[in-house]
What does this fold into?
Amino acid sequence: MTTKQMEYILELSKMKNFNRAAENLFISQPALTYQIKTVEEEIGFRLFERSGRGVTMTPAGAQFVIVLENVLEQLEEGMRQGQMHDSSFSKGITVGLPYRSALYYLPEAVDRFRKMHPESPVTPYFNKSLQMQPQEKLEWDIEFSILENARRMSGVKEYPLFESRLCCGFAKDDPLVQKKIIRGEDIKDRRLVTTNTKYPNAAHHVLRDIIGSYHNAYFLVADVQTILHTVASHSAVAFAPGFVNDHNGELVWIPYDCKETLRCVLLTGSTEKRQNVLDFIRMMQDVYAGHKEDLL
It folds into this structure.
């Protein structure tokens, strides 16, 4: 099976109509029909049920489509990784981060850096596996991390960027949004939602203290987007680092009354000496220093 045939299957699964799928793929309807039939003969089961009103997925076809989506996604990632190491991309800089708000001021730094090094494009790569979990090795030229997690890695160099306070996130119409700081008694008996990522022990101690002292029911969620949805729907109060704040105005983030912070750093390989990479790190540090008063 070719990648083109995979794309044909995925498009037909979305359109559920041979004519519309063929138009989107810029091929004829008979050609698309032939390609689908060829694949079905190759794999030994039907992907689609045909009718006068269009097509529907068979149960086996629906499962097969999920597999194809994952295969094509991994193939695209492999191509990106190859491009990163190709000589024609040697002047570019790749930055790994789990989600945009982790380095909210990254676009400003990229804009300023482009004027200094127009020959060195900066490409962010968003990877949920980087949600503050200790990594075995760097995958990008520069990676966002929490200092305590970075120190579990070998062969890296740390560059301090900012300290993030522990915060509570509220729906914007919550009565507590008028406060400048949140204390444990403010959220007594409120449900808390946090991430299941690897935070330093100090942050976990604060969360356990809140739960133990103020009787909060809480649950872990898989990702930051789920936190934002849960809070916006008035189902819980978020407890998370300030850099989870996505600045969209839907939630209000207020520091929690504790001294613990998460020290956020940029990482490179320990032997990194490329001038453009070092210049970009300094640019990031300058940008974050200029926003120090805006950081939670």
About this structure: The longest strand covers residues 156-171. Residues 164 and 295 are 7 Å apart (CA to CA). The chain has a mean pLDDT of 86.
